Amino acid sequence: MSDLLATIPLSAIRVFEAAARLKSFTRAADELGVTQAAVSWQVKALEQRLAQPLFRRLPREVALTPAGERLARAASEAVGLLRTALADLTETGEGVLAISTLQSLATQWLAPRLGGFQLAHPKIAVRLETSSRVIDLNHEPIDLALRGGDGQWPGLETHRMFSSQGTPVCTPAMREQLGGLARPEDLLDAPRIGNEGEWAEWFEAAGVTPPQTRRGGLRLEADLQAIEVASALAGQGVALASPILWSGEIARGQLVRPFPTVIDYGRGYWLAYPADRRRSPKIAAFRDWLLKVLAEDPLTATVSPDR
């Protein structure tokens, strides 16, 4: 076995790992900057050395054989470890820190605070990418992510930031238009924005029997809190919003909270990065800064402990 391993070039493993992950020789060639023929040749040479097929060639893609699946798991882990080791050897704590996060989390929470990180670490430039897509942190050129979910992502180390919550918010003018909203029951006849199930949950938490059907209000097909709050800011009704994410609008008086009841959706926002990169200087610097900010903020200081 050791003799066989010595005859297989590392380049062949790298090409195989890309083709297995992308399920395409063409896409692997594009990622590696070589021709599709070069990828096909490397894979074929590897199969000949192993004396068994690793891929089934299909009309528009390739599929792994059982042997290919076993090798792909090992190759992916090996390439990841090599990438991490090389990064650790060459990283100096400077350079670019690439962060992926949700648009609402970036604009409502991270961006107003990011200047503090830049002042504390002037040699680290931050590249912020906003996307609802779950980034593959083990293979894409992103260092860490701030994302929503349950924090259970294989291969990633996670730190809970704060819970995903909802509490009624509206403009001061809308509150006056609705008679001041003295009791939670007053929202039963109010134009409510957002998900009916979440509103029913809030009414129950506030001790009010939820309505059987929605009366008026705006139904949004995409249950995106940022869109709902934008509608509330435009004076279209009352929305359920995170008192943490929209604390700025509340503090400035653009939004008011007529009632203190808050529901927890059972999810949360998390800092996530590859577990094998936990010692990366730039990742460690951002992690330590972020956890310190969370611990010092009265709105987030009581979040659940890290996993």
UniProtKB/TrEMBL annotation:
Residues 8-65 form the HTH lysR-type domain. Pfam families: HTH_1, LysR_substrate. CDD domains: PBP2_GcdR_TrpI_HvrB_AmpR_like (cd08432). Keywords: DNA-binding, Transcription, Transcription regulation. Gene3D superfamilies: Periplasmic binding protein-like II, Winged helix-like DNA-binding domain superfamily/Winged helix DNA-binding domain. SUPFAM superfamilies: Periplasmic binding protein-like II, Winged helix' DNA-binding domain. Coiled coil: none annotated. Belongs to the LysR transcriptional regulatory family. PANTHER family: GLYCINE CLEAVAGE SYSTEM TRANSCRIPTIONAL ACTIVATOR (PTHR30537:SF26), HTH-TYPE TRANSCRIPTIONAL REGULATOR (PTHR30537). This is LysR family glycine cleavage system transcriptional activator. The lineage of its organism: Bacteria, Pseudomonadati, Pseudomonadota, Alphaproteobacteria, Caulobacterales.
